[in-house]
């Protein structure tokens, strides 16, 4: 069933855990994410967004994600991730997306506000909630690299308060040492900065680049206002590892179905494990 409104985000924020946003590129990754949400009986976001559109095509991937969410027994939102294009945002909202992320983090502050404010207006017109980003993350959304966090790109708490007040967004993605993709060395979040941002803004926070993040760092973020966590690289790696392992037995008979199924099941298992990670140990399955 489609997860409408920002209530789920607010609910997990109040409970001290987080809503997972899993990036989907094709039918198999959507199926794996959906199966994980059903097995865990937890709300999940299918993030069929700007980067995956380049591979699958916007209309095709939108229909796959919305159909999977609409027919599942799980609570599934369909989220547009990292969009810089108001026309793309509008198309996804008109198709039925439950939330969108407008990414003006590359723009000067005033221009980021203007873009984000317009995206928020359009989202409200369609009953969807909107996420925006302030600060910049190193790394690549689609290709894991040995990126290193850059202090200069981190989110400023005072600027964050001004940004949220000016734009009317529902969630704020922050840069606090997090990195897109895997890194050579463990990532250490600036939890003091994150706590200051949480105190300064009245909306839930979003952590991008959570793949491979140590659990203690992740739970530290959840305790400081993070209520949505994006995961991409871990699912990609699980998919490719499963495909690589299945190919030797599949190639002689051209058994492509077994390869696709292995990738799908690996995404399911990895997403299910990550969902469990987003519940602090002290809460168990509450």
Tell me about this structure.
The protein is α/β, with parallel strands linked by helices and 286 residues long. The protein has a single domain (7-283), classed as Aldolase class I (TIM Barrel), CATH 3.20.20.70. The chain is 49% helix and 14% strand. The protein has 11 helices and 8 strands. It has helices spanning 7-15, 27-40, 50-56, 58-71, 86-95, 109-125, 157-167, 191-200, 215-222, 233-250, 256-277, and strands at residues 19-23, 44-47, 76-83, 99-102, 129-134, 171-174, 205-207, 226-231. An 8-stranded parallel β-barrel has the order 1-2-3-4-5-6-7-8, surrounded by 9 helices. Strand 6 (171-174), helix 8 and strand 7 form a beta-alpha-beta unit. Helix 2 runs parallel beside helix 4. The two termini are 22 Å apart. The mean pLDDT is 90.
């Amino acid at each position: 069933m489609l997860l409408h409104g920002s209530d789920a985000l607010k609910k997990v924020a109040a409970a001290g855990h987080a809503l997972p946003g899993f990036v989907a590129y094709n039918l198999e990754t959507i199926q794996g994410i959906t199966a994980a949400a059903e097995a865990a009986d937890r709300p999940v976001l299918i993030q069929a967004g700007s980067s995956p559109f380049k591979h699958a095509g916007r209309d095709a991937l939108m229909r796959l994600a919305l159909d999977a969410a609409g027919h599942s027994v799980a609570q599934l939102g369909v989220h547009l991730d990292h969009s810089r294009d108001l026309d793309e945002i509008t198309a996804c909202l008109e198709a039925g997306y439950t939330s969108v992320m407008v990414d003006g983090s590359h723009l000067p502050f005033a221009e980021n506000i203007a873009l984000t404010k317009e995206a928020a207006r359009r989202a409200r017109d369609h009953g969807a909630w909107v996420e925006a980003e302030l600060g910049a993350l190193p790394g690549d959304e689609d290709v894991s690299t040995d990126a290193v966090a850059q202090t200069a790109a981190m989110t400023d708490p005072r600027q964050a308060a001004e940004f949220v007040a000016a734009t009317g967004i529902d969630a704020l993605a922050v840069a606090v040492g997090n990195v897109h993709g895997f890194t050579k060395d463990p990532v250490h979040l600036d939890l003091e900065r994150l706590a200051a941002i949480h105190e300064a803004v009245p909306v839930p926070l979003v952590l991008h680049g959570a793949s491979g993040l140590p659990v203690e760092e992740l739970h530290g973020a959840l305790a400081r206002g993070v209520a949505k966590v994006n995961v991409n690289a871990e699912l990609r790696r699980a998919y490719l590892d499963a495909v690589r392992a299945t190919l030797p037995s599949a190639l002689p008979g051209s058994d492509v179905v077994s390869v696709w199924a292995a990738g799908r099941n690996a995404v399911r298992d990895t997403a299910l494990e990550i969902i469990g990670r987003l519940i602090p140990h002290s809460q168990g399955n509450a």
